[in-house]
Amino acid sequence: MNQHCILVGAPVDSGQTNPGCLMGPTSYRVAGLASTLEALGCTVSDRGDVTLPALEAVSSANPAVHSLPETVAWTQALAKAAQAAAAEGFPIFLGGDHSLSLGTVAGIAAHATQRGRPLFVLWLDAHSDFHTPLTTRSGNLHGTPVAYIAGRGDFEGFPAFPVPVPAKRICLFGIRSIDQAERAALNEHAIVPVDMRELDERGIVAPLREFLDQVRAANGLLHVSLDVDFLDPAIAPAVGTTVPGGATFREAHLVMEMLHETGLVTSLDLVELNPFLDERGRTARLMVDLTASLMGRKVFDRANPIS
Length: 307
Description:
- The protein is an alpha/beta fold and 307 residues long.
- It is 36% helix and 16% strand.
- The relative contact order is 0.17.
- It is built from 10 helices and 8 strands.
């Protein structure tokens, strides 16, 4: 059965301080995401961009935090949009900085609860994003979604996360930038990132297969959050948080092809694309191509696909 892909624009720029991510949804559309998916046999509905609702008065005890009312409002609006889209098809959220996942994953979690199925999260990122509004030193809330998803406290002003996702159902994959406070908090919550050291030693396939086997055994729903900085900046420069040593072109496509072959993925974030930092749209096109691999595009058919 062909996927019904629902595109939801999330022009969120409040979670960091490098202007430009709000242009991400338009860039994915210009790069041909809808036509690419249709060529693979998917039906595509573009819901347009979610709009920022009226802001409420909310503040943080951490003076470094900025744009908190905007981020809370985006979280509320995107949670609603995500839950509605998940009930009708395969949502693809076009971002926007990674703070959008505070809302998208909350909405997907509410949908999973309605379906009576466990939610798993695959976080493809250079960063662990495990700060809270009280622990962040930069004040950039795009560094907090995994903590919110995992049920870590200190999210005053945000809607309560529907059902926090247990550590064993969160896979932080390709991580290569964790500060000491995040590392201690991850240890406390028993979340062990699959960092680039492990991928260098074991390769891409084994650790990803182990996580996917858990999703399959639990009959879970799998949300994938793909950050541009998961990729090496040499092939994906359009991101404000570049970290050397990311996934190569071949490694990234392998991840996406493996995910497709399992048939487990039920929703997707595309985040942190900053077209202002791109080179003639190369990063946007790469992200579209990776989405195509996730949805079934192959260079050639394998007799024995990896699963």
